[in-house]
């Protein structure tokens, strides 16, 4: 049966879901979505916190872990290892048969508290890569300034990377250049370029949330509301095309290298006045990924429209950034604030995750 997710694939876009839980895997929901065209899974601390809190699926494992371990982070990693491995195995056939190397991936996030510590991030990336021990694992590295050398080093070691928390065009380009440096080092050291891949997770809806807030503070300019995020993403795609072209890239590609594809993250609609699937429908194009929350995925399967939209209105997108600057919305400050908030929010989610593990431990002791 042809589904909207299959239609996305026909237009060159891979559909992933930003959702993971043991129930999701064991009840067969993930496998059924894969049959309907789902091609990848991403996870984050908030998702794991909700999964652990939602029922008793983890209680038996938690009892065993708590008998020997008290550190909530180590307990979480043991839980994550089982779920991420199971998701990787469910998607392995997709991974093995995807010639574009866009399908079959599962992402696990580095501790966001390490976002500004390059050496600690590199060490954690290697640890997670070895812990999961699956070829279709992406380790998520924040695209902070400290994260850029970690991206390069991880790729040079042959570890696939999902660069997360990208908001600005400059940082998106910097992440791509870090990836290219890593590829060159891997090649020069005799590594197999076909064994690594990367996506650049470019966040979308949060940009409109912050830009619209600033427009409200300025007053007026209603015509600009809800327009910066899509323009920003369309320009990021143009940057991707420029970076992964030309003689230098063609030499790497001939050796088996994959480009660092754009992944549209934060595609759920935050403003109820906007169409619920607009950040999916407006960013459909070849060699890209759209990762959706479970709710947005269901909405898109129900009423999403599929067309090649990513390269429509590129000139207008460029002028859109100029119009925001003209009315007093500082693009660089918007994206810098969003990066800081993104790191802080993920760190807070990690703490909530650890608190949930502690709460579960107390529940199990009393039961």
Automatic annotation (TrEMBL):
Protein name: Transaldolase
Involved pathway(s): Carbohydrate degradation; pentose phosphate pathway; D-glyceraldehyde 3-phosphate and beta-D-fructose 6-phosphate from D-ribose 5-phosphate and D-xylulose 5-phosphate (non-oxidative stage): step 2/3
Gene3D superfamilies from the UniProt entry: Aldolase class I
Keyword Acetylation (UniProt): no
One Gene Ontology term, aspect cellular component: cytoplasm
Pfam family, one: TAL_FSA
Enzyme class: transferase
Catalytic activity: D-sedoheptulose 7-phosphate + D-glyceraldehyde 3-phosphate = D-erythrose 4-phosphate + beta-D-fructose 6-phosphate
Keyword annotations of the record: Cytoplasm, Isomerase, Pentose shunt, Schiff base, Transferase
Localisation per UniProt entry: Cytoplasm
Listed PANTHER family: TRANSALDOLASE (PTHR10683)
Record's function text: Transaldolase is important for the balance of metabolites in the pentose-phosphate pathway.
GO biological process terms held by the UniProt record: carbohydrate metabolic process; pentose-phosphate shunt
Domain of life: Bacteria
Catalytic machinery residues: 140
Location (main, coarse): cytoplasm
GO MF, one example: transaldolase activity
Enzyme Commission (EC) number: 2.2.1.2
Family: Belongs to the transaldolase family. Type 2 subfamily.
């Amino acid at each position: 049966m042809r589904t909207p997710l299959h239609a996305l694939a026909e237009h060159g876009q891979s559909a992933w879901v930003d959702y993971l839980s043991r129930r999701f895997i064991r009840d067969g929901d993930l496998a059924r979505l894969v049959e309907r065209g789902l091609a990848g899974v991403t996870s984050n601390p908030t998702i794991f916190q909700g999964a652990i809190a939602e029922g008793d699926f983890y209680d038996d494992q938690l009892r065993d872990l708590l008998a020997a371990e008290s550190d909530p982070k180590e307990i979480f990693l043991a839980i994550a290892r089982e779920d991420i491995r199971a998701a990787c195995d469910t998607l392995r056939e997709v991974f093995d048969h995807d010639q574009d190397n866009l399908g079959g991936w599962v992402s696990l996030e580095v501790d966001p508290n390490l976002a500004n510590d390059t050496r600690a991030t590199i060490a954690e990336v290697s640890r997670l890569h070895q812990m999961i021990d699956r070829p279709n694992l992406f380790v998520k590295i924040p695209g902070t300034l400290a994260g850029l050398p970690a991206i390069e080093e991880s790729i040079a070691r042959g570890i696939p990377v999902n660069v997360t928390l990208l908001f600005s065009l400059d940082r998106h380009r910097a992440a791509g250049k870090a990836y290219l440096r890593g590829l060159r080092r891997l090649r020069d050291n005799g590594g197999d370029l076909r064994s690594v891949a990367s996506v650049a997770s470019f966040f979308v809806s949060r940009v409109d949330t912050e830009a619209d807030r600033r427009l409200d503070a300025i007053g007026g300019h209603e015509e600009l509301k809800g327009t910066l995020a899509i323009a920003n993403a369309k320009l990021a795609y143009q940057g991707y095309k420029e970076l992964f072209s030309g003689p230098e890239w063609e030499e790497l590609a001939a050796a088996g290298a994959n480009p660092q594809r754009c992944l549209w993250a934060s595609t759920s609609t935050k403003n109820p006045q906007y169409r619920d699937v607009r950040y999916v429908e407006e960013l459909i194009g070849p060699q890209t990924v759209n990762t959706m929350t479970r709710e947005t995925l269901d909405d898109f399967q129900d009423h999403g429209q599929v067309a090649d939209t990513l390269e429509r209105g590129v000139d207008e997108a460029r002028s859109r950034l100029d119009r925001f600057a003209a009315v007093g919305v500082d693009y660089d400050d918007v994206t810098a604030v969003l990066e800081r908030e993104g790191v802080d929010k993920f760190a807070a989610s990690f703490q909530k995750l650890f608190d949930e593990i502690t709460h579960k431990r107390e529940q199990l002791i009393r039961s």
